[in-house]
Amino acid sequence: MLKNLGQGLLDLFYPYSCCACGKKIPPGIFCAECRVRIEPLTVTVFPYLFSAVRYREPIVTAIHRFKYRGEVFLAPYLSEFLIELCQCHKLKERIDCVVPVPLHPTRFRERNFNQAELLGQEIAACFSLPVLNRFLIRFRNTPSQTGLSGKERMANVSDAFQVRKDVTFKGRRCLLVDDVLTTGATLSACRSRLLSAGAAEVYGLALARD
Ligand SMILES: [Zn+2]
Prior knowledge:
Layout lengths: L1 H12 L2 E2 L6 E2 L6 H4 L13 E6 L4 H9 L7 H14 L8 E4 L4 H7 L3 H13 L8 E3 L11 H8 L3 E3 L9 E9 L3 H12 L4 E9 L1
Parallel strand pairs: 3-8, 4-7, 7-8
Antiparallel strand pairs: 1-2, 5-6
Helix pairs in contact: 4-6, 7-8
Bound molecules: zinc ion.
C-alpha cells in the first residue's frame, strides 16, 4: 500500500523518463545529468549554416527515437535547442518564413512524417512565421550519405531538390530546417535552389552537427 502510494507520488511528480538513460524525470526530455552532457555549438560551419548542438550522446539517442522510432512528442523539446540558437544569432529578425528540408515521397510514406517539418513547425509557431512546406521538393531519393566524402555528398544531393514550378520565393527570407548536419551538403543544395527561385536570404539550421 505504502509502496503503491510512493510509486503514485513519484509518477505524479516525475511522469516522464529521461530519453537517454530512462531515469524518471519531471516533464521534459533529459534528466539533469544527461542534460549537462549536451554540447552547444556556437561556431558556424558557414556564415549562413547554423547547428545547435554536437551530434553526441544524449542527443543521438533522442534524435534516433524521434526519427526512427516515431516518438514525435519529442519534437517540441528538441526544437527548444533550435529556438534558442535562433534567438542567440538574432535569426528571427532576419527571416520571414520557415522551410523544412523535404524528404523524398518514398521515405515520407515509410516514416509517415518528416522530422524536419515537425521541428520547423515548432520554430515557426514560436516566432509566428509561416511554414512553406512542400514548396521545395526532393525528387531524387539520394542513396545513403554514410561513407561519402564531403565532395561526394555534395554531388550526391546537389540535383536532388527542386522548387515547385507553381510557387515563388521572390524576396523571401527563409530559414531552412533539418535535423542533422554532416558536411552541410543537403542544406547548401536546398539553399541554392531557394536562391535560384528568388529568395533574398536563406539561412540553414540543423539541430545537431556530426
Ligand atoms: Zn538521463
